[in-house]
């Protein structure tokens, strides 16, 4: 997507130094646009844990490039010692964040690649780099396709309203900043807007890290799309008063049965949408499906993050990024980062292959290669 007219992805290999991976450090958005250089797998792991990069697709791509950086620093004295080092880096990267499945999927894809082929260390390094690029390119391509499929839903609603504004509510940031490009929940919005459909987006602020208020709002502003930031608890009220036509969120992990793990608070939006007869769609690339988990509520691991994220709120004061305490000093807090929306509340899943019902039959109809393995 463009930032001040310049096209950017969220992660890329430095053109001048193939030992350096560049990322947009999202901790500073929307106030500063800072590009960070990473040259070791440890730096990449830290960037994922501390959320310089975040969002399911992007942390998958980041883990891919992290494995490439690991291959550059791994022991080259023998193939065996190289593979031992790679396995150690894989473990470190996978441990950074537990809920989004894209991360372990990307790491495993690279491990499988270098286990199956590469006669020399140099060959295996080349496989790591090709795979990291392939993961990033695929992510961008899949998100672009999600945009085309999802835009049909928005167009349908626009037609049914005789071209009046389509009001879409989204939670957290499932935009291009959460992926390599385009995003998932935002991609249909970008496509529909590009086709001349009149859209307006309600952006949940998404406490505690405010990815909606700081990232989604910034993205939409960059693209010139009308939006309004709302507090997390406003969605139900807006839905009751006919001010929301459609909800689209992203996902960090979706079971093959259609249960959706996404940013904390998504479940409550789905409940309110169901109560008000509003379609609730989830947009995701195939790398976000977990084909091993049937019951998402029971079996998807939910990340719990540092309580300081709840006790403090961060913002710009007198041109400086500042944290402000909003609870009593040392207040006990709980910081569950994700929740699971059961499939029964999801109207449909928007994927790169099309839209399907949130059910085992639905996901297998689009991804028949998983029949017999789930
Ligand atoms: O904790 P984050 O910012 O990495 O959470 C990811 C999200 O933004 C998701 O909730 C999003 O909707 C799907 S992941 C692209």
TrEMBL record:
One of its GO terms (biological process) is L-methionine salvage from methylthioadenosine. The record marks 172 as: Transition state stabilizer. Keywords: Amino-acid biosynthesis, Isomerase, Methionine biosynthesis. Its EC number is 5.3.1.23. The active site is at 252 (proton donor). The keyword Amino-acid biosynthesis applies. Pathway: Amino-acid biosynthesis; L-methionine biosynthesis via salvage pathway; L-methionine from S-methyl-5-thio-alpha-D-ribose 1-phosphate: step 1/6. GO terms for molecular function: S-methyl-5-thioribose-1-phosphate isomerase activity. Signal peptide: none annotated. It catalyses: 5-(methylsulfanyl)-alpha-D-ribose 1-phosphate = 5-(methylsulfanyl)-D-ribulose 1-phosphate. It is an enzyme of class 5 (isomerase). The keyword Isomerase applies. Substrate binds at residues 54-56, 97, 211, 262-263. Coiled coil: none annotated. Catalyzes the interconversion of methylthioribose-1-phosphate (MTR-1-P) into methylthioribulose-1-phosphate (MTRu-1-P). Belongs to the EIF-2B alpha/beta/delta subunits family. MtnA subfamily. This is Methylthioribose-1-phosphate isomerase. The lineage of its organism: Bacteria, Pseudomonadati, Thermodesulfobacteriota, Desulfobulbia, Desulfobulbales. The gene is mtnA.
């Amino acid at each position: 997507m463009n930032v001040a007219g310049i096209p950017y992805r969220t992660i890329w290999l430095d053109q001048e130094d193939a030992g350096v991976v560049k990322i947009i450090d999202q901790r500073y958005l929307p106030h500063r646009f800072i590009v960070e250089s990473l040259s070791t797998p440890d730096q990449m792991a830290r960037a994922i844990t501390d959320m310089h990069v975040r969002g399911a697709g992007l942390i998958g791509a980041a883990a891919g490039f992290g494995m490439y950086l690991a291959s550059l620093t791994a022991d080259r004295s023998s193939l065996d010692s190289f593979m031992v080092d790679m396995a150690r880096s894989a473990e470190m990267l996978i441990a950074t964040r537990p809920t989004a499945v894209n991360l372990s999927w990307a790491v495993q894809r690279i491990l499988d690649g270098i286990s199956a082929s590469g006669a020399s260390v140099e060959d295996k390094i080349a496989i790591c780099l090709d795979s990291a690029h392939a993961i990033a390119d695929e992510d961008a391509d899949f998100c672009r396709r999600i945009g085309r499929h999802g835009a049909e839903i928005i167009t349908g609603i626009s037609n049914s309203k005789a071209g009046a504004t389509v009001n879409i509510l989204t939670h957290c940031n499932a935009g291009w900043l959460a992926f390599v490009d385009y995003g998932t929940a935002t991609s249909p919005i970008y496509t529909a807007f590009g086709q001349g459909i009149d859209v307006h987006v309600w952006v949940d602020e998404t406490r505690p890290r405010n990815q909606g208020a700081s990232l989604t709002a910034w993205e939409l502003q960059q693209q010139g799309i009308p939006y309004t930031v709302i507090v997390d608890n406003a969605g139900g009220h807006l839905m009751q008063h006919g001010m929301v036509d459609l909800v689209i969120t992203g996902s960090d992990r979706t079971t093959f049965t259609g249960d959706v793990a996404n940013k904390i608070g998504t479940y409550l939006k789905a409940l309110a949408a169901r109560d008000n007869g509003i379609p609730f769609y989830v947009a995701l690339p195939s790398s976000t499906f977990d084909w091993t988990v049937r019951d998402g509520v029971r079996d998807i691991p939910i990340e719990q993050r540092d309580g300081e994220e709840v006790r403090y709120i961060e913002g710009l004061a007198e041109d400086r990024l500042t944290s402000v305490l909003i609870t009593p000093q040392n207040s006990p807090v709980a910081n569950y980062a994700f929740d699971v929306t059961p499939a029964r509340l999801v109207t449909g899943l928007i994927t790169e292959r099309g839209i399907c019902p949130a059910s085992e039959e639905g996901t297998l109809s689009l991804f028949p290669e998983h029949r017999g393995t789930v």
